[in-house]
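Student: I would love a firmer grasp of how sequence relates to backbone shape in proteins. Thank you; the sequence and its tokens follow:
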Amino acid sequence: MAQFFYFAINLLGGLSIFIYSMGVMTESLKKLSAGKLEKSLKTATSNDFKGFIWGSVVTALLHSSSALTVMLVGLVNSGLLSFENTFGVIVGSNVGTTLNAWIISLTGLKLDFLNPKFWVPIISFLGLFIKILSKDERKQNIGLSLMGFSLLMYSMQIMSAAVEVVKNLAWFKDFVKTLESPITALLISSVFTGIIQSSSATIGIVETLTLTNPITYKIAIPLVLGANIGTCVTALLSSFGANKDAKRVVILHFALNILGSVICIAVMYLISPFRILEGKISMSGVALVHTLFNIISGIIFVPFKKALMNFCIKVTGGRGNPPLQIR
């Protein structure tokens, strides 16, 4: 009981610090842009390729696909951006958010000077130094973003320590075994990510599991897919009370991630008899799975863009709307 209590307190504490630090980084980086993101978005979505690049880069900088998707919902709702121009940005945001997984995966490196944990105290002090001594708002936001990053790395240490304590206990092993069913793992990950509204946090926990309690590709892949689905909840909540076009952005986001996950799970079941997915996965392996899934699923759905977007229009009651012209 004492071990379970320690595990729960430290996991929840680490998770709360992770989510808070992500919020601090995202908000400070958004303030650094001084509204330029919204302006650049309108000029960067003239075609899907530009939208993809813009979505990837900005999401990587903000460390949050949810922040960008919520921004899209707001811009479309206000009429500053058309629904048809959001496809490339959404696909790009899915790819850009994988940068977080790669940064977290560096914590598994044995070389101290490459391990973010080694730099956490330095980065934290530097961020606080800039925040306290500078009166310039821009520099203060730089300091906050550095402090947010250091907190994020620290939260990973807390969660890793929590799992380390219980990794050999029977109930924890039983829980990990339940994840061997791809459908179960997908659903658990989707619901969990939807509740905490952070796919990066879910991916971070999956990466932590690879360090303390080695898991297979068969378990990790559905958990990653579920994180992609669950993160759509944030945009869904932001669309309440919005117009139809804004709601279509959310439906498109869900459709891309759900359909991509269904295809991936189907492939997993097809190749499972060959035991290809039984090998142990590393932290960098989780990051690679996350990246490949978002890139490949985006490529797969490009030819079906018109069908997907017209589906979103029909779901929201698109009768009477002018025909959608897809470039």
Residues 320-327 have pLDDT under 50 and may be disordered.
